[in-house]
Specification:
Elements: H1 2-16, E1 37-40, E2 56-60, E3 68-69, E4 83-88, E5 94-98, E6 102-106, E7 113-120, E8 127-128, E9 135-145, E10 154-155, E11 161-164
Antiparallel strand pairs: 1-4, 2-3, 2-9, 4-9, 5-8, 5-11, 6-7, 6-10, 7-9
Length: 165
């Protein structure tokens, strides 16, 4: 009888100490970073271009070189410039740069347009910040001039977007 009582007591005691829940912990962290910023110190200027029957392209390179333009469209005395931008980002973060195609319009006849495809001097994809100091990059592009493009001044505003990744 003592054996049976001991066995029953052991079984009851064993089930009384069994766990039906468990807990774990995790540390929760957050880091607030400075907003990313971009500013420009120059504008893109494709310069003066001669109207031709065939049209063509005018390229402003990002390496500081002179514009690339066909001889028939060129006025050699005209300056052409790329734009310079500065980006500020949190130290040790990555960011990307995007610039969509732009349609520029004739200032006296907005039905007359040309497109600009942009290029920049940063790496494709991710760029890394090494500090909160500004990194500079150059934006150039290709102006697509139509055949017999209407004479006049053309303008538009390019949007350069820098984004944390």
């Amino acid at each position: 009888m003592k054996k049976i009582t001991f066995i029953l007591l052991a079984l009851i005691s064993g089930t009384a100490f069994a766990q039906n829940t468990a807990e774990g912990t995790a540390t929760v962290n957050a880091l607030i970073v400075s907003p990313i910023g971009v500013s420009t110190s120059d504008n893109i200027d494709f310069g003066k271009i001669v109207k031709t029957e065939a049209g063509g392209t005018v390229v402003i390179p990002t390496n500081g070189g002179e514009r690339v333009i066909s001889d028939a469209m060129d006025i050699a005395s005209t300056p052409a410039t790329a734009a310079t931008f500065a980006v500020t980002a949190e130290e040790n973060t990555t960011y990307s740069v995007s610039i969509p195609q732009l349609t520029i319009k004739n200032t006296t006849d907005e039905t007359q347009t040309m497109t600009v495809d942009f290029d920049h001097s940063l790496n494709e994809g991710s760029n890394s910040s090494t500090g909160n100091t500004a990194a500079t990059f150059v934006v150039g592009g290709t102006l697509n001039v139509g055949g017999n493009q209407k004479a006049g001044s053309y303008t538009g505003t390019a949007t350069v977007t820098v984004s944390y990744e």
